[in-house]
């Protein structure tokens, strides 16, 4: 990416605690850029609307200009968005990912010293999840049990497939295409090679869903060995190359508790990826601080995001933990090639957490005598 020294970066503040965490995060980002580059680089932050704030101002939950800004400026960042319950409004996050074809959901998971964790050796967890972001049961092909079209679908399935679906039943479709599998697995392998990782694991339920999840596994192996014949191997004894292997999703969820060091880079489908990335984050105590990004590596459009929700119970109270969006900002700087700013953010967050002067949610996961700080005070300490 060719990022100018004064890029415009659109941001969605987000609902609930969005306002609290965004202000804290922006102060950390500006300080990191200033310290790393003096006056030679500076970000022009531009607010774009989505969620409750957008609805109040424009009557739309996700205005077209917001999507257009991300397309125009390529790199953006967002806080959490509430999805209105009922009324047929789809998740705004899913809509953004699909409309901008952000085909990778990238979720790195690693341990921050000082946090108490459910696993005994959390320092062994250093896993990067590449989750397919546009297909699977999240593609949105779902019909409610009382939708008149369900009967037509049932009739089609009975006549054409001899599947007799009885009673009050909602129906959903799970698409998984070769194209989406290949583009995801290629990016996971490129990342693994660039970062000198050892293994890419395809996580799937191909034993049960042969033509979707099983196809994902088969296409994954095929594309890896076809596109990277000299760099990737299926042979676990060939340590000169990047290993590609696979694991069934339920075994994966057991194994990450028992031997997390066996995993490195993971490529998986949308629903598995949703479960696995949160389970991994929880394992290192990082569910509230884990960062994420949604990326289309072909167009370059990337939106970095806080992975938690809007936490309405603590909104506006200077209590929220801004680490998730701050660490997503670190990922954003890496993506921009501003590695020095990214390094400063990493150092600021890790030393602050290990000093045990943190927001309440993190303090409650620490032994000893942690000091509870407000959102703003915590961000100042990171700076
Ligand atoms: P949530 O993540 O908002 O809250 C779960 C619990 O974690 C709450 O007790 C909350 O106080 C706490 N929490 C969350 N983030 C925190 C932070 N940064 N610091 C301290 N504590 C934090 O999940 P929920 O209650 O299930 O969802 C609330 C709303 O958020 C819903 O409308 C949901 O659709 C939305 N949501 C959005 C996203 C997103 O935009 N990426 C993700 C998940 C949920």
UniProtKB/TrEMBL annotation:
Mg(2+) binds at residue 274. Homodimer. Belongs to the isocitrate and isopropylmalate dehydrogenases family. Its cofactor is Mn(2+); Mg(2+). It catalyses: D-threo-isocitrate + NADP(+) = 2-oxoglutarate + CO2 + NADPH. It comes from Thiospirochaeta perfilievii. PANTHER family: ISOCITRATE DEHYDROGENASE [NADP]. The modification N6-acetyllysine is found at residue 120. D-threo-isocitrate binds at residues 91, 93, 97, 107, 131. The modification Phosphoserine is found at residue 91. Binds 1 Mg(2+) or Mn(2+) ion per subunit. It is an enzyme of class 1 (oxidoreductase). NADP(+) binds at residue 321. The record marks 138, 205 as: Critical for catalysis. This is isocitrate dehydrogenase (NADP(+)). One of its GO terms (biological process) is tricarboxylic acid cycle. PROSITE patterns: IDH_IMDH. InterPro entries: IsoCit/isopropylmalate_DH_CS, Isocitrate_DH_NADP_dimer_prok, IsoPropMal-DH-like_dom. Its EC number is 1.1.1.42. Keywords: Glyoxylate bypass, Magnesium, Manganese, Metal-binding, NADP, Oxidoreductase, Tricarboxylic acid cycle. Pfam families: Iso_dh. One of its GO terms (molecular function) is NAD binding. Residues 8-382 form the Isopropylmalate dehydrogenase-like domain. The modification N6-succinyllysine is found at residue 78.
